[in-house]
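Researcher: Let's continue the batch. This sequence belongs to NUDIX domain-containing protein, and it's 144 residues. Same format as the previous ones, please.
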Amino acid sequence: MDIRIAAYAVITDETGRMLLPRLTAEFDHRWALPGGGIDPGEDPANAAVREVFEESGYHVEIDELLGIDNLVVPGEKRLKKSKRAGIPLQNLRIVYRAHITGGQLTAEAEGSTDDVAWFTQPEIDSLKRVELIDTARRLAGLIR
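Model: Same format as before. Here are the structure tokens for NUDIX domain-containing protein:
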């Protein structure tokens, strides 16, 4: 079994809208939380800050740890293009709350995401999205 450890951030504005990047076509253009894989030796909170900037153009500061989520993807459900297709993958996902300290909304160029936008909670409910969004919304007290 492979393991992937990643760090993500729940970022909301003063009106309660939530910042979400959109994954590329390879990932079926689903909306996701800003964040991603932790580099070897990298602090998880620093990884979340780095990933948020890469995917959104915003500088953020971590406020608190909201929780840790675990998801096991059976080997047959992994991306067919993956060199590791067929091997189960455990995703350990560390979720923080963060706030913006600077920067400008900018979609990532040539990365795993191709768009980024703010959404109200009702708008999120109608998006094609990864399940981690709803897990993070529950951890942040945004939904039940």
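Researcher: Any comment?
Model: Residues 2-139 form a domain with the Nucleoside Triphosphate Pyrophosphohydrolase fold (CATH 3.90.79.10).
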